[in-house]
Amino acid sequence: MTTVETHSPETAPLKPVKSARISKWGRFWKIFKILFATGFVLGIFAVIFLGVFIVRSTRDLPTLAAVKEYSPSVMSRVHAGDGKLIAEYGIEKRVFVPIESIPIQIQHALVASEDQRFYTHDGFAPRVLPAPCLPILNIS
Predict the structure, then answer these.
(1) How far is 98 from 117, CA to CA, in rounded Å?
(2) Is the pLDDT score of 68 beyond 90?
C-alpha cells in the first residue's frame, strides 16, 4: 500500500520559478565574461608586444652622455699660402656654423618646412604621428 503525501499550502515545497529576466541576465553575464576574458588575453598580448617593440627599438640608441658630448665630423680643408682652397678631405662634408650666425628668418623657415605647428604644440603632435608609419606599412 502506498501513501500519498499531501502538503498544505504553507508546507508545500517551493518550485523554482524561471523568469525571463534571469535568463536575460544570465546570457548577459556569459557574454560579458567571454568578452572580458578575450579583452584581458588580447591586452596581455598587446603589453608583451609593446614591451618587445620598445626594447628592440631602443637597444641601438646612444646613451644620454654620448648625445650630450656629440661632435659632428667636419671636413678638413687644405689651403694654400695665399688662402686659396686646394682640397677638402672627410667622410661627411660638413661645415660647422654657429646658430647665432644664422638669421632668425632662416631658422624659422627651416622649422616651418619641417613642422608648421612647431610653436603651437609641446613637441608631440598626435595628428601627424602616424604619417611616418605609412611608408613602413605600405599604406597610401
Answers:
(1) 25
(2) no
